[in-house]
Amino acid sequence: MLFGIEWDTSSAWAFAWSILPILLRGMIVTLQATVVGFVLAAILGLLLAMLKASHCRAIAWPARAITEFLRDTPLLAQLFFLYYVLPEYGIVLPAFLTGALALGLQYSAYTSEVYRAGIESVPRGQYEAARALDLSAGRIFSAIVLPQAIPRIIPALGNYLVSIMKDVPVLSVVSVLEMLNVARIIGDRTFDYLIPLSMVGGLYLIMTLVASAGVRWLDARLPKQGVPLK
Amino acid sequence: ADLDQIRERGVIRIAVANEIPYGYIDLDGTAKGAGPDVAAQLAERLGIGRIEWVATGFSSLIPGLQADRFDMVAAEMAILPQRCRQVLFSEPNSSYGEGLLVAAGNPDDIHAYEDFARNGKKVAIMAGADQLEMLQALGVPEASMVTIANNADAISTVSTGRASAYAATSLTVSGLADKSGRVEGAGSFRDPVVDGQPVRSWGGFTFAQRSEKLRDAVNTELQAFKQTPEWRAILTEYGFSEADAEGSFQRTTAELCTE
Amino acid sequence: MTDISTINDGVVAEGQSSLAEGDTTGREPVIRFDAVTKKFGDVTVLDALDFEVRKGEKVTIIGPSGSGKSTVLRILMTLEQIDGGVIHVAGKPLWHEARNGTLVPAGEEHLRMMRKEMGMVFQQFNLFPHMTVRRNITEAPMHVLGLSRAEAVARADEYLELVGLSDQADKFPSQLSGGQQQRVAIARALAMRPGIMLFDEPTSALDPELVGEVLNVIQRLAGEHDLTMLLVTHEMAFARQISDRVCFFDKGRIVEQGPPEQIMSAPREARTQAFLSGCLQPG
Amino acid sequence: MTDISTINDGVVAEGQSSLAEGDTTGREPVIRFDAVTKKFGDVTVLDALDFEVRKGEKVTIIGPSGSGKSTVLRILMTLEQIDGGVIHVAGKPLWHEARNGTLVPAGEEHLRMMRKEMGMVFQQFNLFPHMTVRRNITEAPMHVLGLSRAEAVARADEYLELVGLSDQADKFPSQLSGGQQQRVAIARALAMRPGIMLFDEPTSALDPELVGEVLNVIQRLAGEHDLTMLLVTHEMAFARQISDRVCFFDKGRIVEQGPPEQIMSAPREARTQAFLSGCLQPG
Amino acid sequence: MDWLNYLDPLLQGAWVTVQLTLYSTLLGGLLSFLLGVGRLASHPGLRWLSICVIEVFRGTSLLVQLFWLYFALPLAGQALGLDWRLPPVVVGVLALSLNIGAYGAEVVRGALQAVPPAQLEAAKALDFTPRQTLWRISLPQAIPEMMPSFGNLAVQNLKDTALVSLISLGDLAFRAEQIRNFTQDSTTVYTLLLLMYFGMALVLTALMRLLERSVGRWRATGG
Ligand SMILES: Nc1ncnc2c1ncn2[C@@H]1O[C@H](COP(=O)(O)OP(=O)(O)OP(=O)(O)O)[C@@H](O)[C@H]1O
Ligand SMILES: Nc1ncnc2c1ncn2[C@@H]1O[C@H](COP(=O)(O)OP(=O)(O)OP(=O)(O)O)[C@@H](O)[C@H]1O
Ligand SMILES: [Mg+2]
Ligand SMILES: [Mg+2]
């Protein structure tokens, strides 16, 4: 029994059918972690991108080093660090939030590059024309650069959303009850791993195929009106 | 693999689950604990020259046996009927009671497993451990349980308040409490009572279903070894009480498996 | 705010094909370069350049590729910095401002104020692709000059009418031909009512058959006596027709300058002769 | 394997500037198109084309862009399939093979055998950029003809000598000028000792000053009586000089053909006259 | 100093990580080519097999794959009366290499498709067989194109090896966990862990750059 739902071990099919709702409960946690992790990655990545673009070397260089470090170390190690080391300094986050934060940090390294590429893809002439019209720096960024960069940024971010989803199972090591952890607990208690784990694989395949299709759909729908895409 | 093959190879693969004091691997990679120390003696008596220690998660012990990733488990795993359906157990090597690890000063004032059935606080258990069944039998709701992967994670989990207590055997609790000043064993602990009886566990060595010969040979040697003072010395060295040692003679595996 | 008068709102002499022969020699210089030097790395692009444009004057810059023509305009628009010398626009130093009586390097505030004097039309149009034609034109008046939406739209429509594109206001730039895009760019610059208009080869990215429409619009602007125009172009016949003065640039210096008839028909310098004989002179 | 003789190894008449006037009219046709039709989608590119080339003949194809000139060569090289008609090369059907007495669509084996008869030089050279010049030339002889490395290298050096690039053998294509690259491409095709050489505008991707070296090499090849050459080119003077026959293509058909003097100086068809008057005829 | 005591077991673990990375990157590279070429094969069976493998391994989580191979595969084998109990090292290398093989296949495919068609026509005109064209013309030109992506994949793979610690393989992350369990000294252990991974990644990146330069020599010399 898990989440108050009993399983039925009378036959393989009955077992699979009876644990499906339990796995779906885990899937909800997976999706929650994906979304929270993604939002964090999107925000932290923007922050990193802005720091890296700074003209002040004392800001840009450390930001670059941090990006490199976040990108080159395993999610698992970062997760352990956040989960076990932060509390030593009095910062105690629930497992779920720690996990989402680890995902956010790891992927902020990637998303910061997405922002940079998106912004650099706006031709120089656009900045020059905007300056010649005397628009302020803030207005140039928000009204000229960002709207042109976003249609290029969104699809790339979407691909990282899918990647984050595939990394959520790592959070199981800090006791987040996402789909894989749920499947393992079922396995631990029924000693049948084949069915729950195979079902998790199948559910994952469905989730990523749907998500990838969603990203493509969004990509095709983005208001690119007038924006020449490469 | 069964006894003949192991003798032929000259190597037996024994798994432990990093649980002090039942079985764990220290910094130099050697196995220690009540299970491994006794197992080493038995292997010697069986004429098996070398032991390959395998450290793995507690919840991987039974799947690992089934998948033939090792020949024997020396983790003082509790002998329980539902486990007997999956694997073979030796006769009991030890017996132990329950305990609770809490943050220093016991801020949530916890003294029994039953407390969690009502107070809505969270209790940590290790993945695959039998405290789950006890808590379920005592009516602790699923939402109050936090599953951790590793015994030693309990210190962090409890001291940071991610759970109010860690439910484990008394020995595990005292071993962990010794390690860190931030946690302690819950004082005036009341043994959980299930089906009218205080809960006690009997730990033994574990084997795959097909390793019957190995299990029988281990049983023979274990019975003999338990008569020696060395056996008692090993158990007491790791914190088992006289009563725990005596207790191991009170039940047979056959009884425990059918209860 | 500025002592340069702006062109009269929407009042444009229709079909004006002859030249703005108004004598500007007596007027004050509205652009003045004194010994301006500009380098890119080791390459000296402008070499102690002295150069003046009077209020209302229409000046054309010609010269071989790489001679620094665009650089002059880009420096005026503060898109490039200078390495030496002083530039005055409308009597005020462009790159410096007076603070407590001494000249200090200009801050962004000062640069923004100076840029307000000028509008620029680029070779590649540089319209904002994600905005409709009308929003391209209203964006700066609303957010820089602080006009209300209604005022800005009224102004945009007025200039769209001027460039003959009233019916294209709601399209996106990518839906227009190159010539139409460039006319929108001109309307966009004019909507800020600058006293000085800078054109950097406004027709050279256009297919030959579209060049005419843009030249037509510029020619009409040239009829405005108060609008100062500085124009880089390879259209010699056109330069001859509209400009008060032609400057021939080479290697970051002015080799020769004077009335278009003199420069084009009877250049004094060998370098100018060689350059002009290389250009196929139409019409 | 083939009844087409190959050019004599490395024996090249030096400085041969006059023409190969050998009369080929009596010889058997080595290429024959019978009512060949080729479509791309709805567009008919070759329209029931009849066309013959005799062994040793040098034929130049001229005609406006899009008239199907390249298509003829690409079909011969089996880079494009045909939609109707029959082609014979060296007496054998190109796209069909006889099996049990009936003609069936050719398998890859047959096509490979037929391709061995021909070598092709592309407009864009298409050298293999990751191989040195020498390996570009030895690769096919070694792995297609089965020559030993030593034999292939000897052969490569011989043809490099022929095209005057002996000293460039160890460079990569990207280190050579366009003219040199095209000469390597010629050497590479020759090293397979084809009886027929196809050239598709071999000089049109070259800067004018590099055209000469390539034409020179082709002219020397034209001196080989046994080598059949089919050449698409816009170099009229050159075509006149080397070819036995000029074919004027338009809209997938041969409008007019004959000796170069007749076609170039006294074309009969209006279409040919119009085309030739459009070409600046040098020399 | 405590951390000196940790260094020895951590280095042992790091060596396991290095070996795992090496084997799975090599095997993964091989799989990339097989699957990438298979994806473009004219034989529909081969093509669909490649597509399925690529989609399954790209579409599921690596950890799910690891656990499936470790826990579920033996049971699946049992059900069929077969012995599919792979040693953990084999499971680790297999899962890691299938994973980067699937990602690498897309890189290989992209690079092969980027070879200019004119090169293939030139090869055909010289009478190369399709196989010779693939081996002698397409692949050599495509490989330098792939190298930067492969460099990223190799680093990704190094990071992913940390997950094998969860199936009890004594790699760097596993050793770190073990030491922390024993000493409860999280700060030191995990700081060392992160730094060691970072160091290994930097070395790996440098090596991949060298490799990239050496396979792309003909491009570097170009104009
Ligand atoms: N951002 C830059 N960095 C380096 N060199 C530059 C830059 N911009 C211009 N230059 C160089 O400065 C010189 C002058 O450039 P400029 O664009 O002013 O020439 P131009 O006269 O406008 O030429 P064209 O007719 O080709 O537009 C050229 O040699 C050019 O290469
Ligand atoms: N792969 C293709 N798909 C569709 N149409 C094609 C293709 N290749 C050629 N064509 C069309 O076939 C016609 C003949 O092409 P071909 O290349 O033979 O002309 P050409 O005489 O060689 O012209 P040019 O002098 O420009 O090389 C053209 O209209 C061309 O657009
Ligand atoms: Mg310019
Ligand atoms: Mg052609």
From TrEMBL, chain A:
GO cellular component: ATP-binding cassette (ABC) transporter complex
One term of GO molecular function: transmembrane transporter activity
Bilayer-spanning residue ranges: 22-48, 193-215
Keywords from the named record: Amino-acid transport, Cell membrane, Membrane, Transmembrane, Transmembrane helix, Transport
Subcellular location: Cell inner membrane; Cell membrane
Presence of the UniProt keyword Transmembrane in the record: yes
Topology within the bilayer: Multi-pass membrane protein
NCBIfam families on file: ectoine_ehuD, HEQRo_perm_3TM
Protein family membership: Belongs to the binding-protein-dependent transport system permease family. HisMQ subfamily.
Protein name per its UniProtKB record: Ectoine/hydroxyectoine ABC transporter permease subunit EhuD
Organism, as annotated: Corticimicrobacter populi
Automatic annotation (TrEMBL), chains C, D:
Superkingdom in the source lineage: Bacteria
Main location per the UniProt record: membrane
Subcellular location: Cell membrane
Entry membrane topology: Peripheral membrane protein
Pfam families per UniProt: ABC_tran
Family matches, as InterPro entries: AAA+_ATPase (IPR003593), ABC_ATPase_HisP-typ (IPR030679), ABC_transporter-like_ATP-bd (IPR003439), ABC_transporter-like_CS (IPR017871), Ectoine_EhuA (IPR014343), MetN_ABC_transporter-like (IPR050086), P-loop_NTPase (IPR027417)
Any one GO molecular-function label of the UniProt entry: ATP binding
Domain ABC transporter: 31-276
GO cellular component terms given for this protein: plasma membrane
Keywords assigned: Amino-acid transport, ATP-binding, Cell membrane, Membrane, Nucleotide-binding, Transport
Family: Belongs to the ABC transporter superfamily.
Protein name, per record: Ectoine/hydroxyectoine ABC transporter ATP-binding protein EhuA
Native source species: Corticimicrobacter populi
Gene name, Swiss-Prot/TrEMBL: ehuA
TrEMBL record, chain E:
InterPro entries: AA_ABC_transptr_permease_3TM (IPR010065), ArtM/GltK/GlnP/TcyL/YhdX-like (IPR043429), Ectoine_EhuC (IPR014342), MetI-like (IPR000515), MetI-like_sf (IPR035906)
Coiled coil (residue ranges): none
Phylogenetic lineage: Bacteria, Pseudomonadati, Pseudomonadota, Betaproteobacteria, Burkholderiales
Record key words, sorted: Amino-acid transport, Cell membrane, Membrane, Transmembrane, Transmembrane helix, Transport
Protein name as catalogued: Ectoine/hydroxyectoine ABC transporter permease subunit EhuC
GO cellular component: ATP-binding cassette (ABC) transporter complex
CDD domains in UniProt: TM_PBP2
SUPFAM superfamilies linked: MetI-like
Protein's UniProt keywords contain Membrane: yes
Gene3D superfamilies: MetI-like
Transmembrane portions of the chain: 20-41, 48-71, 189-211
Gene Ontology molecular function, alphabetical: transmembrane transporter activity
One Pfam family this sequence matches: BPD_transp_1
Similarity comment: family membership: Belongs to the binding-protein-dependent transport system permease family. HisMQ subfamily.
GO biological process: amino acid transport
Domain ABC transmembrane type-1: 14-208
Cell compartments where the protein resides: Cell inner membrane; Cell membrane
Membrane topology type: Multi-pass membrane protein
